[in-house]
Amino acid sequence: QVQLVESGGGLVQVGGSLGLSCEASGGTFNDYGVGWFRQAPGKDREFVAAISRLGGNRYYAESMKDRFTISRDNAKRTVYLQMNNLKPEDTAVYYCAADERTYVLRQGGGNYWGQGTLVTVSQ
C-alpha cells in the first residue's frame, strides 16, 4: 500500500558525501518504519540503517554508524540517508524499504521496497 522511490545516487569521489532520499506515496506514512539497504555487485543485500515511525529511534549497521545518518520528515513523506567520507566499498545499489515493524527492517526484511538508486564511489 506504500510506494517508495529512491533518488540522489550518482558518481562521487572517495571521501566525498552524498545524500539519498526515499519518497513515499500511498498509505499513511507515519505507520511505517523505513530502512536503507544496499547491494554491491556480486554481493548479498545488507542492512544499512533504519528509522522508526516518528523518527525517535535510529539504527545503523556497525560499519556505517560513524559515517551515515538516517532521518525522516513525515510532512514531506521522505526518509533521507546522508553518507559522508565515502569509500569505494560503499559502491552499491541503495534501496529503501518500509514496514509497520521497524524490527523487521533491522532483520533485513520489509513489506515494501523501492527500485534502488546506484551510488558509485571512485578515485
Give the tags.
single chain; 123 residues; mainly beta; 7-stranded mixed sheet; 4-stranded antiparallel sheet
Distance between the termini: 41 Å
Biggest β-sheet description: 7 strands, mixed
Q: H/E series, N to C?
A: EEEEEEEEEHEE
- Principal-axis shape: globular
The share of residues in extended strands comes to over 45%
SS-based class: mainly beta
What do you see in this structure?
The chain is mostly beta strands. It is built from one helix and eleven strands; from the N terminus they run E-E-E-E-E-E-E-E-E-H-E-E. It has one helix spanning 102-106, and strands at 3-7, 10-13, 18-25, 33-39, 46-51, 58-60, 68-73, 78-83, 92-99, 112-113, 117-122. Strands 2, 4, 5, 6, 9, 10 and 11 form a seven-stranded mixed sheet that branches. Strands 1-3-8-7 form a four-stranded antiparallel sheet, with no helix packed on it. The longest helix has 5 residues, at 102-106. The chain is globular. The chain starts with a strand and ends with a strand.
